[in-house]
Automatic annotation (TrEMBL):
Residues 60-230 form the FAD-binding PCMH-type domain. Keywords: FAD, Flavoprotein, Oxidoreductase, Signal. InterPro entries: BBE, FAD-bd_PCMH, FAD-bd_PCMH-like_sf, FAD-bd_PCMH_sub2, FAD-linked_Oxidoreductase, Oxid_FAD_bind_N. Its cofactor is FAD. Belongs to the oxygen-dependent FAD-linked oxidoreductase family. PROSITE patterns: FAD_PCMH (PS51387). The keyword Signal applies. The keyword Oxidoreductase applies. It comes from Stachybotrys chartarum (strain CBS 109288 / IBT 7711). This is FAD-binding PCMH-type domain-containing protein. It comes from the Eukaryota. Gene3D superfamilies: 3.30.465.10, 3.40.462.20. Residues 1-18 form the signal peptide.
Length: 496
């Protein structure tokens, strides 16, 4: 059963912090967990073990023989202090939506499930504190209850902090910047159990690296975010549309003509081939953070070419559940095989994009067990993102973040896996080319990355940036415990 709803799929950010085996000496696998953590560690005989260890995607997923559920940052500190002296592989999970095959290096390991940190509240100064078990839905509901907002991603069930660490794109980024741009402080635990706070005032070097490459340095227990008053009182205009293949060129040309988007406008495209109806399904969601009549100025450009048109004025708290006919939220189902790749583009080259869509149809027709495969495009405003200097944080894609194309492989058997993976890999590689992407160098959003991209596409090509990240890695994770999620090399000479 595909997780795609009638015409959409969810784009889900990486949300786990990975910890592989390391080269520490004098380690063992036989020592018992510290007595202080009694009742916090469970093996496979626990009735809730499967529920506590299942991730969003099963594709090349990590496996576990025990799960540790810390209840406080002190528990987490004791746990990491113990684990770093053993030969156990270990991995932390907040939302569990990170799908990179790099996580599969952890087999028969220890999962650190952060679900007991699922809390959020707004402080007297209007900053918002969230625990690392909180989801985007928690962030939205908590902020809105105080009349505030912060930029979040589209899928409500994604872990808020996991997505933040890779940058944090979202519909409100034109007004509020990336989710990571709103971060003001984190409280976290390093590999050896040391508890620290990182902010502009404390461990500022690490705080820079956490915002764009944050899965590489430790496990965050909680974080503080800047918030803003609700735009338009929290009311957003949303229009969902269906299109026929014959109108695809017009859809793409109209989208390109709107670039750069108005700071309040966001577009999301969804494409997949329905093997039951033998039909290419093309969907578009137009969101405008403002009054309906202003949003209709933009939806009216697409509406004459659509086959189905539904519009509404909806509160921000319900937006992610309603967008694209509810299909994005329906993509939250865990435990299904998903394998994705991504590329950032300046615009959508009409000829190349039409060729891409037709290739999806051909692949699924030839391989019906890959019928969950799809393409999604997120076209978001960039004003507040690009307003910050390129060295503001470790996020390397400012001024190169207009469109995120995701090549989504979803399958029912091994043949579907092979076919969808080959298709996604081939087309991602084609869009590396400046002729396709519009950029001199490939830009891959780290949260959407796979395992076969050059690290420079994820973290930046500038030598100074790579050197700074490698220095942070060597300082804060010298033994490479946090290296199963697009690991930063400890030496600048190892970048590719």
């Amino acid at each position: 059963m595909t997780r795609l709803a009638v015409l959409a799929l969810a784009l889900l950010a990486g949300s786990a912090t990975a910890v592989p085996t390391s080269s520490l000496r004098c380690r063992n696998t036989t020592s018992a967990w510290p007595e202080a953590l009694a009742g916090r560690v469970y093996d496979r005989s626990w009735p809730n073990f499967v529920n506590a260890t299942t991730r969003w995607s099963t594709h090349m997923a990590p496996t576990f023989y025990e799960v540790f559920l810390p209840e406080t940052i002190e528990d987490l500190s004791i746990g990491l202090s113990y684990l770093s002296t053993t030969d156990k592989q270990w991995l932390a999970m907040s939302g569990g939506h990170g799908y990179s095959p790099t996580l599969g290096a952890v087999q028969n390991g220890t999962l650190i499930n952060m679900r007991n940190f699922q809390y959020s509240y707004v402080n007297d100064d209007f900053t918002m504190t969230i625990g690392s078990g909180s989801k985007f839905r928690d962030m939205v509901n908590t902020a809105a209850a105080s009349g505030r907002e912060v930029n979040v991603g589209n899928c409500p069930c994604v872990g808020g902090l996991g997505a933040t660490l890779g940058g944090g794109l979202g519909r409100l980024q034109g007004l509020r910047g990336l989710t990571s741009d709103a971060l003001t402080a984190v409280r976290m635990v390093l590999w050896n159990g040391t508890i620290i706070e990182a902010s502009e005032e404390s461990h500022a070097d690490l705080f820079w690296g956490l915002r764009g490459a944050g899965q590489n340095f430790g496990i965050i227990a909680e974080a503080d975010f800047k918030t803003w008053p609700l735009t338009n009182g929290g009311m957003h205009y949303s229009a969902d549309m269906l299109f026929d293949r014959s109108n695809l060129s017009t859809l793409i040309e109209t989208s390109n003509a709107l670039l750069p988007l108005n700071a309040r406008l966001a577009l999301q495209h969804s494409y997949f081939y329905d093997v039951v109806t033998s039909r290419l399904m093309i969907g578009l969601n137009v969101i405008y953070a403002g009054p309906m009549e202003e949003g209709q100025v933009y939806s009216s450009l697409f509406r004459p070419h659509s086959q189905l048109f539904v519009e509404q004025q909806i509160h921000w708290t319900g937006l992610n559940d309603a967008a694209l006919f509810g299909g994005i939220a329906n993509g939250c189902t865990p435990g299904e095989p998903t394998n994705q790749r991504n590329i950032m583009t300046r615009d959508l080259h009409p000829d190349h994009f039409l060729e891409l869509i037709d290739s999806l149809v051909e692949m699924v027709q030839a391989n019906p067990t890959a019928n969950g495969s799809a393409i999604m495009v997120e076209t978001f405003p960039v004003q507040a993102v690009d307003a910050q200097p390129t060295d503001y944080t470790a996020f390397p894609h400012r001024n190169a973040f207009a469109n995120a194309i995701v090549f989504h492989g979803e399958y029912l058997d091994a043949a579907g896996d092979v076919a969808s993976n080959a298709w996604a890999s081939e087309w991602r590689d084609r869009w590396y080319s400046p002729e396709y992407s519009g950029y001199d160098e490939p830009h891959v959003y780290q949260n959407y990355a796979n395992e076969d991209e050059p690290l420079s596409a994820l973290y930046g090509t500038e030598p100074w940036r790579q050197q700074r990240l490698s220095s942070l890695k060597a300082s804060y994770d010298p033994h490479g415990f946090f290296s199963n999620w697009h690991a930063i090399p400890a030496s600048a000479d190892e970048w590719a």
